[in-house]
Give the backbone structure.
Amino acid sequence: MKEGWEAIIGMEIHAQLATETKIFCACAANFGDEPNANTCPVCLGLPGALPVLNEKVVELGAKAALSLGLNVNETSIFARKNYFYPDLPKGYQISQYDKPFSSNGELTIMTAERDEQGRAGDWKPLTIRIERMHLEEDAGKNIHEGLPEVERFSYIDLNRAGTPLGEIVTAPDFRSSWQAYDYVNHVRRVLQWVGASDADMEKGNLRCEANVSVRRIGEEKFRNKVELKNLNSVRFMQKAIEFEIERQIAAHEAGEPVNQETRLWDEKNNQTRIMRSKEDAHDYRYFPEPDLQPLTVSKQFIEQVKADMPELPDAMHDRFVEEYELSYNDASQLVSDKDLAAFYEATAQASNNPRVSANFILSELLRELNNADKTAKDSPVSAENLAELIKTLDAGKINNNQAKEVLTEMFGNGKSADEVIREKGFEQISDRSTIEKIIDEIVEKNQNQVVAYRGGNEKLFGFFVGQTMKASGGKANPKVVNEILKEKLS
Amino acid sequence: MDVKKIAKLAHLEITEEEVALYTPQMANIVAYVEQLNELDTSSVEPMLGGLTKEGELTETRRADVPHESLGQEKALDQAPSAVAGHFQVPKVL
């Protein structure tokens, strides 16, 4: 960012809650079904149809809110947001307005600036305010491509109309595009973690918008802000915000106006372009939805949801660092996915070696999983089996390279570590008397070399090691071999 | 009374004559309803959801269990224009 300026960014995230059915009717909330098949009088907006709230929305909404540090309000009110658009059959969206489901949140995220190559600098905590998360229904989907006469017509699929959303709105507390980027990733992971949302941006069940303005450092007042839409991935969002910050600073410095407007990210040309100006801004004429009761949740219910909540990733990260003495980055990688974190913890405990477990999972297991296009959840090697392998490695029965080979084999055929080690004949010989016997024979057979070694030709030590390994079929424990050879040859 | 703005929000096209006709009519309606503001309601809980006290005990939530939907054919049956399983509408941005 140009010297002397700062960016002011607020975020809005729409997350689809992971229910089976829509928020106000029992149509399936499926993605990818035949267009308009999952519809009924309620979500088609037919006259006389009445909405009934899906209780699962309340539960998942509470999980989402609590995981983001929001307070769940005991009473909230649904409201009609009025506007005309073909994907909104009723002519209004049932949303919430002055009494949202949850409000007054504070959330601490970890964030880092990135260099030109996208490498993260120091990770630092940033606490931001989340103003609210309210519940609402989604609209249908407009289709502008791939159907007849698209230059004259648009097409509507109402399967998505009425699927439940949580809209999460922050205060304007971000000062850089990377802070906003880390925030969206934080929200995405936490919502997946607690099971509130699949939070998959590609499928459109997590969508974000950014409000961006800039001001000179020291200025108190905000300048005009621009709303950014059509941000189809976290990376595009970051680029769009970055572009917008530079565009606005340049305009202010040149004395040109920065208008309050909505702009879209244009992926092809790597820039934002205007969608609508403030003059076209909507007047939504909100009023309380007369067809729905106020939504009340008891203190008891909120306590129960809290009690059932899993340990959140940030808390788990800090515990891994503390309890298992992992590095910041290793712990971060392990908690990037809930199943991976659980897999790690099970392995660490069963093997009683948290550090080697972390190394092995992060380097070896993740590589195998990536190659097979799998995740920790469907790993062919169980945590118990991996722990067995780590214990065997720890006991010095096999070496590191052999352990890697065994893992690859276990990954391929699902056998236990012991079975693979036996089949491969990897079991090391560490028994002193067995190795001593082999060495005695070698010393006996190679008297000339023994004399030369004792005469000062120390390089010959390697020759004896080689002979011993060869005679043992590569199974002798090298450490024990060294020890015994030193004794015998001195 | 900005009748033009209200007409625009409601997607209605009205003529200047109609603006002249409706402006006093709508002002009358609003004035009529505004009489309610003369009542002191500070001690009355707002009623939302349209149910009586007894009605408040009515179950107002449902379980998250899918029911059969109408299906594509029925859903589109009454549409003025349906093409390839979709509602067809004039081009929107």
Chain A has three domains: 5-299, 311-424, 432-489. The two ends of chain A are 70 Å apart (CA to CA).
